[in-house]
Design brief:
- With 313 residues, this protein is an alpha/beta fold.
- The N and C termini lie far apart (38 Å).
- The chain is built from eight helices and eight strands, in the order H-H-E-E-E-H-E-H-E-H-E-H-E-H-E-H.
- The chain has one domain: Rossmann fold (3-Layer(aba) Sandwich), CATH 3.40.50.
- Helix 3 links the parallel strand 3 and strand 4.
Length: 313
């Protein structure tokens, strides 16, 4: 069935086309980062007011990882400790930072009544694979051991959008296999799960919207270089088994090249005995979750994820 953008998404896509923004694959990484930041300024709604937003430096073998802690006004506590979501931003492992996903993290903290720690992992091409993976695992492990943050390590979640969803899935696999803390759940927002690009949604013209088929190759080349796409740390769908992973919330969008691999990953998780909440937004494109100023469905998704987090912890 052909993909049809809903009216709001179609209007946003038209506006982006008329703006004449150069394709990322024609830019340097630094230029792309600047354009991405500009787009977030235009598409982000007003940031929700929280109890506190504070910088955090996370130590790791590769050096300090910048992070940010979001504490909502309403916070669920048990014995003085609260659940937390370690969040990894999207951007193809090349663009994005704490600022581009500031509003999203505020919204998730507010909706989930949960502490959110946003992690500014190293980016490619300056730091290619597996640098982002190493930072994501190191940050999650460190956070779990910091009682002074007021976090209940037994109610620790990981999550992210796009490349961040990929990192969250990889961290969940690593933690299951002993390289990290036991996790309460994983939030995978249109995640990249398989670099083979074998799925039909990578070939359909209707899915080449904003995140185009061409720019995926640009991101991939910057991040992976000559690395093996079958490495589960790059393609979590290539893990030998998905059994034993924590509960998952998986979101996909209809006009998204990553749609089918996200759908398949959710199905495989469920077949492996993992509790899965799967949510599909058929009329949206990749990236809609960070466009709450322009797309009401972004708020619907964030509220649903918040409800899922509350239900899990």
């Amino acid at each position: 069935m052909p993909v049809v953008l809903d009216p709001d998404a179609a209007a946003v896509y038209k506006a982006f086309q008329e703006a004449g923004r150069p394709p990322y694959e024609t830019l340097t990484a630094d230029e792309a980062r600047a354009y991405y930041m500009q787009a977030r300024i235009v598409s982000n709604p007003e940031p929700p007011a929280l109890a506190s937003v504070a910088p955090l430096d996370i130590p790791s073998p590769a050096g300090t990882i910048p992070a940010r802690v979001y504490t909502p006004n309403r916070l669920r506590k048990s014995d003085g400790l609260s659940p937390a979501l370690v969040f990894f931003h999207g951007g193809g492992w090349v663009i994005g930072n704490l600022e581009t996903h500031d509003v999203v993290c505020r919204k998730l903290a507010d909706a989930g009544e949960t502490i959110v720690i946003s992690v500014d992992y190293r980016l490619a091409p300056e730091h290619p694979f597996p640098a982002a993976v190493e930072d994501a695992i190191a940050a999650t492990t460190w956070v779990a051991g910091q009682a002074q943050l007021g976090i209940d390590a037994s109610r620790l979640f990981v999550g992210g959008d796009s490349a961040g969803g990929n990192l969250a899935a990889v961290v969940a696999l690593a933690a299951r296999d002993g390289d990290g803390p036991r996790l309460a759940g994983q939030v995978l927002i249109y995640p990249a799960t398989d670099f083979s690009r074998r799925h039909a949604s990578h070939r359909e013209p209707e899915t080449s919207v904003l995140l185009t088929h061409t720019v995926i190759g640009w991101f991939m080349n910057h991040y992976l270089g000559n690395a093996d796409i079958a490495d589960w740390r790059a393609s979590p769908a290539r893990a030998s088994t998905l059994a034993g992973l924590p509960p998952a919330y998986v979101l996909t969008a209809g006009a998204d090249p990553l749609r089918d691999e996200g759908d398949e990953y959710a199905a495989r998780l469920k077949s492996a005995g993992v509790s899965v909440t799967y949510r599909h937004f058929p009329g949206q494109f990749h990236g809609f979750f960070t466009m709450g100023k322009l797309l009401p469905q972004a708020h619907v998704a964030a509220d649903e994820i918040g409800a899922w987090l509350r239900a899990q912890a």
